[in-house]
Design brief:
single chain, mainly alpha, 3 helices, 0% strand
Length: 88
């Protein structure tokens, strides 16, 4: 882990996360640090140098949606539940 990450200011943390497609709206510094750590551990690639939320995806040609951790968790909880039901 980057030893300098604890010294990063909130705007720097937000920029780091935004260019990787992670939503930073209404996040406190502690939450941003947690997201930074997770993104760093996952080695998430930069998908948008400018952090422009209206950027167009090169792959689909459509505007990309921001990654929402809450929706991601709900999706996998539902998926796990469905898989559990299929095993019964």
């Amino acid at each position: 882990m980057d030893p300098e990450f604890n010294r990063m200011k909130v705007p720097e943390l937000k920029k780091y996360l935004q260019v990787r497609g992670i939503s930073v709206a209404s996040k406190r510094r502690e939450e941003l640090l947690d997201l930074y750590q997770k993104a760093h551990e996952l080695a998430m690639e930069v998908i948008d140098e400018q952090g422009d939320p209206s950027a167009t995806s090169v792959i689909t040609g459509r505007k990309r949606k921001k990654f929402n951790v809450g929706q991601f968790r709900i999706f996998f909880w539902i998926l796990s539940f469905c898989l559990l039901l299929l095993q019964l």
